[in-house]
Amino acid sequence: MASSKILIPFYRISKIQNNTLWESKSWRSRKQQPLQPMIIRPKRLPIGFRPVFSRPIAARFFATDLEKLKRESDTTESDNSASTTGVIDKKHSEVLLYYDHIYPFTVSKSYFRHYLSTLAFPWVKKRYDDKLKHQVLEISSPLPADASMTEFVPLRRDCGAFVKFKYPPDVSAAEFIAKIRENVNANDEAHSNIFSRVINSIWNNSPKVFSVKGTPWIEDLRRFPSSKLSIKFEGDPLTEEELYVLFRRYGLINDIQPGPAEAFIYFRHTRSAISAKHCITGMVLNGGKTTLHIQYVPIQRTNFLVSLISTHTKIAVPILLALLATVAVLIFDPIREWFIEYKILHSRRTFDQIKDNRFFRYLYIPYKTIIDWAYNSYDYIDSQLHEMTGSKPEEEEADGQSVRDLKNESNMFWIERYEKSKQIRLWIMENANTFIIVKGPQGSGKEEFVLSHTLGNDDRLNQKVLVLECSELGKARSDINLIDSTASQLGYFPVFSWTNSISQFIDLGVQGLTGQKSGLSESKETQIKNMFSLATQAIRSITDSDYSKYVNSVERKNKRLKDDEKLEILNPEDFLQQHPESKPIIVLNKFARRADSTQNDFIFPLIADWASGLVQNNLAHVIFLTADVGSISLLNDALPNQVFKDISLSDASMDSSRQYVCDVLKCDDSSLLDRCLAPLGGRMLDLQSFIRRIRSGEDPEQAIAEMVNQSAELITSFFLSGSHKFGTGDSNWSPAQVWVLLKLLSKQDTIGYSELTTSPLFSRSTQTLEILSTLEKYDLISLKRDKGVLDKISTGRPLFKAAFKNIVDDLRIWKLYETDYIKTLVDLESTKIQKMEDELEKIYKIGKVDGRIDYISSKIEASNKKILDYEKKISEVAAFTGQTSSSSFLGIKF
User: What are the start-end ranges of the E strands in 539-656?
Assistant: First the structure.
């Protein structure tokens, strides 16, 4: 090009503009015609076209809308860097290159690491970028003279970086870019060992350099790389062939989907799509008529296994429920087991034991000091007032009195039971099938006897105690209340009792979808059994913990001893047999034969089986406290071959009762006190109630009279009024039957079972036993057996004997219930006559039978005579105005 004119040979013309011949890189379908040589003047070429002549000429620059917008917005801004605007400016003597794969490629696929990188400290990130910039400059060297790196923009998400170089005027841009590519390839091979070269050839990990032909948009949106690109056309679209020529240099292409407004290109490798996106996006073609906008297309990944499971409900629902159950067991069961252990180990700790802990002292001592400072002036004034008046504060008197009462109670009232308490401790320390039963009537102080006086006074035994109130479980009125009460007793936490109702609906829905139950809904029996099973694991964990401490202690000691002096380590079974204090003590209070609610009758057999399992596996000592003698049959079923150790607690003697009351009330022994204590009979519950009444200001006679009246009112309202409704099967007695018992027991301390069965109301033995057992359950009477056979009947509480006499001696009450009792007998005889008349009618229909007719006739005549006597007696009762006669009526004295 000595002159500015060039002779162009015969070529296919793509575009002629401004006296310049252009040939497009693409091949559009046009009518091809031969051209004559012509003279043109070289000018700057637009991006995407190359001149026909051999020497390259710089392309003419067409500004895109993005660049125009940037120039307009940059007029009032001082910071126009690429990190702020997302666009890299480029001068005439600069080239913009994209370096591929200078970061580890896993950065783009590891979203978690990408998010963590945003939390890095600014100076750490800047230091890493400077190190990377130095690395890029090193692999691109040596650069031509006067060439330098002017800008470095890293792209961590896409594993690459934009690098802007300034090249010297005597070197063309194409030559400069070619030189850099040669340097990168040479440096990569020079700095790589044989192993790295093999890895790079297999995984294509070597860095590459591409020329940026468009206007890159550096964005940090949450659009992660993929092998699929979306090309949106602003202006005329490109054909499939043109897209292939434009994108092929960046890597292998699997497929191209052209379109009028948007096209899709599928690269074989994600790395190729990243390079193409950064180098071509914003590129202007066809003389400014077409602009390309490229973005990644998110990959929609499909897990065929998950899809198969999720689209088949019969497979998905059971798997989902199994996973939920597994997660619940793995997460919540260890937490629940820890809470059960905590309840067993800390339930009996007192404040005195807790405040000795050093960590507690660190918190409590400063708190107590501040409280003392705050109330110091008040305490001083208060103490001065009491010194002047000569009195003591009420709280101090109450505290001192309660301490003295407790001391007196421990030393005096329980002296009769000291030997029994000592016997229980001896049984526990013997550690031979410690299945202990403590029997006694209600109010006899069984719980206090075991927990306070037997276990509480022994530091070896009071460290691991679990108390279960069985009556609280038996009286639960709903499934949720039962589960919550059981969890509270065991320390089972957290408990989700409401999920049982929800699981029933889920189970119903699953059954409708799959045709079978999911098994998610469990019965309350299963849930309660699971709770006790977890409690067993917690108890085993406690014993294992003690055994581990023992093993560690022996091993430490053996390290200091010679080989012939080393101690033998016992196995867990032998260790627990020799160390009974390592086993927890389970106290089952108010154990009964039947629950208050019949729907909870499974509770007591379940508890008996659970306790027997603990004893058989040598995991715990078990103590049953019961007032229901019939409950022992459940224990016999749980341990059929076990001889139980039992302690029977009776009421205190009159001397002990008198001494106890006198010591607590600080009064002298007197005949008046003896007369008042006689109806109480040494029952601990009633003695404490009597003491509280005396302290409230009542005199002894008034206190005992009020207690008798209250007991009488309880009996009449509950047992005689017929308004008792506690559940199916509980109200199986009649007021007339209770009236018979009241009259008999008001005159005698005990009555024989054979004497009671002479009454027409108790003639059926099966029904009589059920009625008496129910009345014993509610503490109205007490049954005594001889060799397992019912023998004697007495009052449930000694105070009830006085209440029975109070009811029977009341003329108005006596007339009411005596009349009702006689009418019941009349109804009973009338029923007999009706049955016998029906039988006579049947006999007359089948023929004459003289012997049977005479027998039935005599029975009818006898019943008629009884009815006449009963009616006469009703008249006598109605007319009676004085004391009841001592005459006998049907063998019953009244």
Answer: 585-589, 621-626, 645-648
Q: Looking at this protein, which amino acid is placed at residue 768?
A: T
- Those residues whose C-beta lies under 8 Å from the C-beta of residue 457, and which sit 6 or more positions away, are none
What is the distance between the alpha carbons of residues 15 and 481, in angstroms, rounded to a whole number? 90
CA distances from 163 to 129, 210, 631 (A): 12, 10, 90
Domains of the chain: 1-61 (no CATH), 84-219 (no CATH), 225-302 (3.30.70.330), 326-349+419-502+522-542+571-650 (3.40.50.300), 718-888 (no CATH)
The pLDDT value recorded for residue 361 is 65
Residues 312 and 684: their CA atoms lie apart, in Å, by 67
Helical H runs in 765-849? 765-777, 798-809, 811-846
Determine the Cα–Cα distance for residues 151 and 88; give it in Å rounded to an integer. Answer: 9
Q: How far is CA 206 from CA 99, 203, 411, 642, in A?
A: 11, 9, 93, 81
468-483 residue pLDDT tens: 999 899 888 888 889 9
pLDDT at 515: 61
**Could you report how far apart the first and last alpha carbons of the chain are, in Å?**
149
Which residues, other chains included, contact 273 with Cβ-Cβ below 8 Å and sequence gap of 6+?
Answer: 225, 226, 227, 228, 229, 250, 251, 265, 267, 296
Query: Is 740 in contact with 757 (CB distance < 8 Å)?
Result: no
Give CA–CA dist 609/194, Å, rounded.
Answer: 73
pLDDT tens by residue, 755-798: 998 899 998 777 898 899 889 888 899 888 887 788 999 998 99
What pLDDT does residue 143 have? 87
Tokens standing for residue 666: 């600080």
541 CB-near residues (< 8 Å, 6+ apart): 337, 341
User: Distance between CA atoms of 72 and 182, rounded to whole angstroms?
Assistant: 39
Q: Report CA Rg, the chain.
A: 50
Tell me the C-alpha to C-alpha distance, in Å, between residue 381 and each of 70, 374, 384, 388, 396: 83, 13, 5, 11, 16
Tell me which residues of the chain have a pLDDT lower than 50: 1-62, 107-111, 114, 348, 350-351, 375, 377-411, 724-729, 884-894
Residue 276, CA atoms < 13 Å, CB-side half-sphere: 33
Instruction: Look at strands 621-626 and 585-589 and give their pairing.
Output: parallel
- The pLDDT of residue 44 is 41
